[in-house]
């Protein structure tokens, strides 16, 4: 099979190499799938650079999220059969940027028929992160105001749709007019282009100086610091990640004075500590997809040969929406 592999760490466009390798064999609790869709995510970029918390041994194939057709089943796997269409996370070093990938059965779920292969491949990480963050950690309620940073990215775009599905008013912050249009298409009620507008001022204006009830922050750094200035009384700031590259320190005296909560979210830990909740999350996401309340908005469908370029453009912040490898592209 053909697979993009990282032999040395660095920028994706330089270190990804298209190799011909043997197809993986499943372990007792694993599945081998023919990849029909693999969404590019920022963790793929960080793994290529060696900066992600998960550091697979070299060489490895990135592609942490995918949709596939089961072609082989481990001896201890139940509930899946050859031919099933599934989605979930890959089992590195055999990621989704290849013709075949390896998946752990415990992190594999049926793919909704209402979504095509590319859309289904993007239903796992971003939407599960959003669901756990908004519902389990921040307890978002209907009628509240949700501020989403990096709203045109993978986790941000999912948070917009999940916020709207929960009945919240959603303010999306993006960089540039093209991304602003994408956030509007996702359903954001208010879109802030940070290149030309101050999101703090906009939030205060549209909430009559009350502020945002929930802040969804996958950026960190200065974005987090400025978000504290427009967080409502008893608001919740969700710390989702640090895509901006800076891990800020929280001013706890400010949280005390303004009565807001700083809430951490590491979605991956739920797979270890509460896998039943992960399964329940997938069931609820499937119901939302069936109802048409959520749908990954795929803007680029890449052929296998174009993956390295696509992941590099994601790394450079030049992509809008979900970028997905699909063999039919």
From TrEMBL:
Pfam families: ADH_N (PF08240), ADH_zinc_N (PF00107)
SMART domains for the chain: PKS_ER
GO molecular function annotation: oxidoreductase activity; zinc ion binding
Span of domain Enoyl reductase (ER): 13-325
Protein name: NADPH:quinone oxidoreductase family protein
């Amino acid at each position: 099979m053909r697979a993009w592999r990282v032999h040395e760490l660095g920028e994706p466009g330089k270190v990804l190499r298209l190799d011909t390798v043997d197809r993986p064999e499943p372990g007792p609790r694993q599945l081998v799938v023919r990849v029909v869709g693999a969404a590019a995510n920022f963790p793929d970029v960080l793994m290529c650079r060696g900066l992600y918390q998960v550091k697979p041994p070299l060489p490895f194939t990135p592609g942490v999220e995918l949709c596939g057709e089961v072609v082989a089943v481990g001896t201890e796997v139940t509930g899946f059969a050859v031919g099933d269409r599934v989605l979930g996370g890959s089992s590195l070093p055999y990621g989704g940027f290849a013709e075949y990938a390896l998946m752990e059965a415990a992190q594999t779920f049926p793919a909704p028929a209402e979504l095509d292969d590319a859309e289904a491949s993007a239903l796992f990480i971003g939407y599960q992160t959003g669901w756990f963050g908004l519902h389990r950690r921040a307890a978002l309620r209907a009628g509240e105001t949700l501020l989403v940073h990096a709203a045109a990215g993978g986790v941000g775009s999912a948070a917009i749709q999940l916020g709207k599905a929960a009945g919240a008013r959603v303010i999306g912050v993006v960089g540039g007019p093209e991304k602003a249009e994408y956030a509007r298409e996702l359903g954001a009620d208010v879109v802030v282009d940070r290149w030309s507008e101050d999101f703090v001022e906009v939030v205060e204006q549209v909430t009559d100086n009350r502020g945002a009830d929930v802040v969804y922050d996958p950026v960190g750094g200065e974005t987090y610091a400025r978000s504290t200035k427009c967080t409502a009384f008893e608001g919740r700031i969700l710390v989702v990640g640090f895509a901006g590259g800076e891990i800020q320190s929280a001013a706890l005296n400010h949280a005390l004075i303004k009565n807001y909560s700083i809430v951490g979210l590491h979605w991956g830990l739920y797979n270890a500590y509460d896998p039943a909740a992960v399964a329940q999350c997938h069931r609820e996401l499937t119901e939302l997809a069936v109802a048409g309340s959520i749908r990954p908005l795929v803007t680029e469908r890449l052929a296998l040969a174009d993956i390295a370029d696509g992941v590099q453009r994601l790394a450079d912040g030049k992509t809008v929406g979900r970028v997905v490898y699909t063999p039919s592209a």
